[in-house]
């Protein structure tokens, strides 16, 4: 599934939230959906069941931490949650590398590229939030 195909299936209530403007959040949510399918594939073998669980948990944490951080009032507080998302994105990338034998090169290459894009965005976001202490206006 492509990002564009996936985005069409995201409920309007999620897309209408101001959080949706955050690219890192959108990519994290997409990564979580991809990990759902990848984890299901990994669950087929007893050798990769633990990997599947770790991968799916880490992938789900990316967008969740961006969402929680976005809802915080200070730059310092937001940065802390964005750092958690950063750590989860790095963990996802690590788990995909470990699952490369079961998932195949094209899937793993795509997921590592996606994870790396999220990591780069998160690094910039953390740095920005550490420099500011602003309280943004957010709609529901």
Report what the structure shows.
By secondary structure, the protein is mainly alpha-helical. The chain has one domain: Up-down Bundle (de novo design (two linked rop proteins)). It has 7 helices and no strands. The chain has helices at residues 3-8, 12-15, 23-42, 49-70, 75-98, 100-103, 105-131. It is globular and about 45 Å long. It starts with a helix and ends in a 9-residue tail after the last helix. The model has no long low-confidence stretch (mean pLDDT 94).
Write the layout of secondary structure elements.
Blueprint (H helix, E strand, L loop, with lengths): L2 H6 L3 H4 L7 H20 L6 H22 L4 H24 L1 H4 L1 H27 L9
CATH topology: de novo design (two linked rop proteins)
Count of strand segments: 0
Q: Supply the CATH class.
A: Mainly Alpha
SSE succession:
HHHHHHH
Q: Give unreliable regions as ranges.
A: none
**What portion of residues is helical?**
over 70%
The overall pLDDT, averaged over residues, is 94
At the fourth level of CATH, the homologous superfamily is: 23S rRNA-intervening sequence
Q: What would you report as the Rg, rounded to the nearest angstrom?
A: 15 Å
Strand coverage percent? under 5%
**CATH architecture classification name:** Up-down Bundle
Helix/strand-derived category reads mainly alpha
Broad shape: globular
Total domain modules: 1
Number of helices: 7
Please describe the biggest sheet, giving its number of strands, its sense, and whether it closes into a barrel: none
């Amino acid at each position: 599934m492509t990002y564009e195909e996936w985005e069409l299936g995201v409920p309007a209530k999620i897309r209408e939230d101001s959080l949706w403007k955050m690219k890192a959040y959108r990519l994290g949510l997409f990564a979580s959906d991809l990990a759902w399918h990848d984890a299901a594939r990994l669950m087929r073998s007893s050798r990769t069941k633990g990997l599947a669980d770790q991968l799916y948990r880490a992938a789900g944490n990316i967008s969740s931490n961006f969402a929680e951080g976005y809802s915080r009032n200070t730059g310092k507080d937001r940065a802390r949650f964005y750092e958690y998302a950063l750590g989860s994105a790095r963990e996802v990338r690590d788990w995909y590398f470990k699952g490369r034998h079961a998932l195949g090169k094209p899937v793993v290459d795509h997921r590592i590229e996606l994870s790396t894009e999220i990591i780069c965005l998160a690094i910039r976001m953390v740095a920005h939030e550490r420099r500011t202490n602003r309280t943004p206006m957010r709609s529901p």
